[in-house]
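User: Okay, second chain of the day. Same drill as before: sequence in, C-alpha cells out.
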Amino acid sequence: MIIDPITLIVALITISTPVLLAALGELVVEKSGVLNLGVEGMMIMGAVCGFIVANQTGSPTLAFVSGMAGAAALSFVFAVLTQFLMSNQVATGLALTLFGLGLAALLGVGYEGQPIPEVAKPLPDVLAEIPVIGPILFSHDLVTYIAIAAVVAIWFVFKHTRIGLILRAVGESHDAAHALGYKVVRIRILAILFGGAMAGLGGAFLSVVYVENWVQGMTAGAGWIALALVVFAAWKPGRVLFGAWLFGGIAALQLRLQAAEVGVPVALLDASPYLVTIIVLVVMSSDRARSALNAPAALGKTFHASG
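Assistant: Same drill. C-alpha cells below.
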C-alpha cells in the first residue's frame, strides 16, 4: 500500500479546518477569562443551520453566515447565564452541549441526504494543477484560507493591538480591568459571541463543504478536540494550528488505512486521532508539572549564587 503524501497533506488541511476554527474561537473566549465547554453543541448547531440554509437557498455564503449566527445565538444563552445570572460555567457549558445536540437533531429531521450546492473554490483551477505545491496551497475553499488567516490575525491582535491587551487584562485580572474602567462583562460577552460564531463556521464547513450532508451527531467529538487543542497549544494561536494539523493528519491517515483494509481493527483506527490527542496532552502536562517542580529549586540556586 502506497499513500500519496500530497493528497494526505491536502486532506489533513481540510479535515483540520473545523477543529481549527472552533479552537481559535475558544482560545479567544478563554483569554477573556471564561471557560465555555459548549463548543460541541455550538458546532453541531452551526452544522445544521448551515446545511438547512444551503439546501433552502442554494447559497453557500448564506449557509456559512447562518451557521455562525445559529451558534452565536446559542453562545449568547451561555453568556447571559454565566455573565448576568452568574451560573457555573462548567455546568452551563455541558448543558449547552446537550441542548445543542438535541436541538440540532430536531431541526435536522428530514434533511438527511438532501442536496446542497457545491462550494466554489476561490482560486483558478490552473493554480491547483501546479505540481506538488498546487494541490497543497491552491486547491482549498475560501473558509480554509480564512481559518489559516485567522491564526495570524488573532496572534497579531493579542500581540500588537490595544484590543488584545484589554482582552488579556480582563482574563488575567477582571478586578484590575474593571478598576481601569473597562466593561468586563461586555468584553466577555463579545468574546463568547466571537467564539460561538467561529465554532458555528467550523460546523457549517463540516456539513456544507467536507461531508456535504447532514447527519445527526456528525461533529463526533470535534468540539471536545477543539477544547483540548487550546490547552495543548498553551493558548497560543500558532500552536493551535499545529495541533489541528496534527489531529487532521492522523484522521486523514486512518481513513486511508481503512480504505486499504490493513490488518488493524476499524474501531482502533477510528479512535486513533483521539488517542494521540490524549497522549500529547498527557506528555505536555507531565512536562509542565516537572517544570513547576523544578522552578523552586532553580530559584533557590539563583538566590544562593546572587547572595
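Residues 298-307 have pLDDT under 50 and may be disordered.

User: Thanks, on to the next one.
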